[in-house]
Amino acid sequence: MTQKKILVADDEKDIVELVAYNLEREGFSVLKALDGGSALESIRRDKPDLVVLDLMMPGVSGTEVCRIVRGVPETANLPIIMLTAKSEPVDRILGLEIGADDYLTKPFHVRELIARVRAVLRRSDQHPDENLPESFDFQGLHVDLKAYRVTLEGREVELSSREFKLLQFFIGHPGRVYSREQLLDRVWGDESFVEPRTVDVHISRLRGAIEPDPSNPRYILTVRGIGYKFADEA
Known about the structure:
Layout: E1 5-9, H1 13-25, E2 29-33, H2 36-46, E3 50-54, H3 62-70, E4 80-84, H4 89-97, E5 102-105, H5 110-125, E6 135-138, E7 141-144, E8 149-152, E9 155-157, H6 161-172, H7 180-188, H8 196-210, E10 220-223, E11 227-230
Parallel strand pairs: 1-2, 1-3, 3-4, 4-5
Antiparallel strand pairs: 6-7, 7-8, 8-9, 10-11
Helix pairs in contact: 2-3, 6-7, 6-8, 7-8
């Protein structure tokens, strides 16, 4: 099995060394960065399999690093675990909305971080979109699954990484109804702190981006009392 490369990016050198030491003991190859600019350079040059990323760093913040990574097709699916002192629910939601795959607050247990690293890598290795076509078209909605690009009636639509994953899941299973809990399991995976209400928030934002009339959706439909589905005709 190929050794996985993990980039640890944090402006606290002691934390970088602690995390790196324990990851190396677990058989991972570790890259290190003490600021956002160095993290971006390492991501482009070394192509890590996962990034453990501090939210607050000098220069380019972890938030901006995440946005940049998610905005480039070559790195859009790079797994990212946010590691930060910010522990308020709004901070966690922000971290996930900008594209983090998981979120761990300081102080943290190293064993929990390693467990989360393994869980996120397992999910990324499953390649849930490998059987999907390269593009998808339905009633004016065009999704380029390779370039991570969405257009509506020819107009480009900007989606967050999570919104794109949610849309990608729906178009892979048109007509099938999924409960909030099932969507959390399929799209959010092992993020145990995410509540079912989070699904409603992301559905609302996804509709606001792709639906010509969000109050009367054409694509993402509500099945009252059960959950959501993509239109049957697709």
